# Entry
Amino acid sequence: MTDITGLAAAPAYSVLRNDDANAESLALIAKYLGAMDSTLTMMLRLMAADRQIPVEWHDPTIEPFPFKGEHGKPAVVETIKLGMPYDRRKG
# Structure
């Protein structure tokens, strides 16, 4: 699987680096990255449903994401926590 985030990062970097970058360009980049995130989140939710893994929304401004991992140890997935969209976070 390829990392598609890099496809958006290069144009975003060039626009953000440019001193005369306007708000419209930044809004388009944010919309594009949001669409990629929505697609990946939907794919994750569908795969979790197939495997009967609970999926919960999580607001990291209320409490940090729980993490129980250790380097070199298998990842145990009991519940998938999705980050709340920025516009719906409470904190």
Summary: Helices lie at 5-17, 23-50. The beta strands are 55-58, 80-83. The first strand starts at residue 55 and ends at 58.
